[in-house]
Write a structure and sequence with these properties.
By secondary structure, this protein is of the alpha/beta class. It contains 13 helices and 16 strands.
Length: 426
């Protein structure tokens, strides 16, 4: 199919994320991908390939077309691509669940596999609500979170996304009213810690859980905060009999410099969600882990089962490549690569701070963020980045990058140059 024919069909029929229908701008057509490069079907801004500065929305941590992950999918495909998980099980899913329990913080013991991060958060919320209903406390049905968060686009996750600045303000008045506190400061402030303690205590009788993104708030604003706040949450939740949920969908598998962001605080949640990098960007899969306390509570109820069961739950192909991705990550000194990328981002993005309109430049692990003092001209910023040979996806007032961990120093410098170009144009 010619490129113009494909784009015409795309514009007419394909609804892209966070876009109108029909589409008003043509996306770039990717013909193939390998390593950290996306090869375009037709050149754009004089470039026929782009360095991916986004890891395909933070998932492709090993880059593209990796032989180890390719082999995992091919080998599993020869055995079976899918089988229902109701009443049946299989080795890839069982081994994956055991591996996740092994590498996540104690005492997470039980694993519910699903097919997207949003669904993993839905399952986490359902676990918490059903736990309290099952142990005879149905009034505990609200969630507490801090502003600036993002937890997904399905119903319960939308209710704990930022209610004003988030993408789901449209649904205010329809979604369940949750309890919001101010966004966490970057550095530790005892006054803010006391605010968290006070609000959890005040609403304890109605709170099923506190849910937060640990250390890094992702698509809600790319903000960073002191890990010590996670300890405050853990202690307050324990004191007031409230469950604690960590959404590690964006932060899990090394992105912040530790395998899980929770590791930076030395605490464990009652429920943890992982996704995105779980399969190395190959297939859609996520997982919700919980403690025996949560699972045992549900098992005591009138309905002693978790009332959830996605059709593609535990998909063998996704399970096999997820297991291979975790093993590949842990077989190499990934932490050294993340530290190298962090150092490269700090050096490469430092000059951007001097551009007109730049409000802040910040780096955490393999995450680099430039915040402007105005809404970005997304089309202009994207064109500028593409002209520099880099793929970025700015939003609101933010230009950010989350490179694959295999990104070399030269390519990392080009990503920083692309961010610089986007910031200057946006």
């Amino acid at each position: 199919m010619r490129n113009d024919e494909l784009l015409a069909l795309d514009r007419a029929h394909v609804w892209h994320p966070y876009g109108p229908m029909p589409g008003r701008t043509d996306p770039l057509v990717v013909a193939s991908a390998s390593g950290v490069r996306l090869r375009l079907a037709e050149p754009a801004e004089g470039r026929d390939e782009l360095i991916d500065g986004m890891s395909s929305w933070w998932s492709a941590i090993h880059g593209y077309n990796h032989p180890v992950l390719n082999e995992a999918v091919k080998g599993q495909l020869d055995r079976m691509s899918h089988v229902m998980f109701g009443g049946l099980t299989h080795e890839p899913a069982v081994r994956l669940a055991a591996r996740l329990v092994e590498i996540t913080p104690e005492p997470l013991r039980h694993v519910f596999l699903s097919d997207s991060g949003s669904v993993a958060v839905e399952v986490a919320v359902k676990m918490c609500l059903q736990h309290w209903r099952s142990v005879g406390r149905p009034g505990k049905q609200r969630l507490l979170t801090w502003r600036g968060g993002y937890h997904g686009d399905t119903w319960q996750p939308m209710s704990v996304c930022d209610p004003q600045g988030g993408m789901h303000e449209l649904w205010s008045g329809v979604l369940q009213r949750q309890v919001f506190v101010d966004a966490p400061p970057v550095a530790y402030e005892e006054s803010y810690a006391e605010l968290l303690r006070t609000e959890i205590a005040r609403h304890a009788d109605e709170l099923a859980a506190v849910i937060v993104e640990p250390v890094v708030q992702g698509a809600g604003g790319m903000r960073f905060h002191d890990p010590a706040y996670l300890k405050v949450l853990r202690e307050a939740c324990d004191e007031h009999d409230v469950l604690l949920v960590f959404d590690e969908i964006a932060t899990g598998f090394g992105r912040t410099g530790t395998l899980f962001a929770a590791d930076q605080a030395g605490v464990s949640p009652d429920v943890m969600c992982v996704g995105k990098a779980l399969t190395g960007g190959y297939l859609s899969m996520a997982a919700t882990l919980c403690t025996s306390k949560v699972a045992d509570g549900i098992s005591q109820g009138e309905v002693p089962v978790l009332a959830h069961g996605p059709t593609f739950m535990g998909n063998p192909l996704a399970s096999a490549v997820a297991l291979a991705s975790i093993d590949l990550l842990l077989s190499r000194d990934w932490a050294v690569d993340v530290k190298r990328i962090e150092a490269g981002l700090r050096e490469g993005l430092a000059p951007v701070a001097g551009l007109p309109g730049v409000k802040d430049v910040r780096v955490c692990g393999a995450i680099g963020v430039v915040q402007l003092d105005h809404a970005i001209d997304m089309a202009a910023a994207t064109r500028a980045a593409v002209g520099a040979g880099v793929w970025l996806r700015p939003f609101r007032d933010l230009i950010y990058t989350m490179p694959p961990y295999v990104t070399g120093d030269e390519d990392l410098a080009r990503i920083c140059a692309g961010v610089h170009a986007a910031a200057a144009a946006g």
